[in-house]
Amino acid sequence: MMKLYIINGPNLNFLGIREPQHYGNTTYEGLLDMIRAHAEELGVLVECYQSNHEGDLVDKIQEAYLQKADGIVINPGAYTHTSIALLDAVKSVGIPTVEVHISKVEEREDFRQISYIRTACQKTITGQGVAGYLQAMDFLCESFSKGEKQ
Ligand code: DQA
Fold first, then answer.
1. Residues 97-115: pLDDT tens digits?
2. Does the active-site annotation cover 23?
3. Which domains does the chain have, with CATH numbers?
4. Alpha-carbon span 140 to 70, nearest angstrom
């Protein structure tokens, strides 16, 4: 069975509380329910993780390798714009990865226009709200099954 790691960075545990004009009203728990229901529909295993700490996120990406995950969906939060460590971690594990942002980052402040992790990702999804996570799961599932058929 395909295994996906869904990793969220700082302040994403405050979904539903933080800036609803950017991030909507769904809580982090609500997001987890949506992800788990979608995983069941797709027939994939999911491991969901959130941390406010950069090194813990690196550890989780490395765990994905050790646990033989087939894909990673990551919203690195503000670490998107600062973290070479997360970029290196995704490059190190070589697992297909999709970068997700709930808000439309390209229409926001200049400092949000840099994404270090992007170059290591197969795809970036922005501005789709929490549905972006489900789209990322679909993308990884499709490319996984294409790979299996080859
Ligand atoms: C975010 C966008 C980032 O710029 C911000 O720091 C976040 C959330 C998003 O999901 O839109 O924490 O990654």
1. 999 999 999 999 999 999 9
2. yes
3. 3-145 (3.40.50.9100)
4. 8
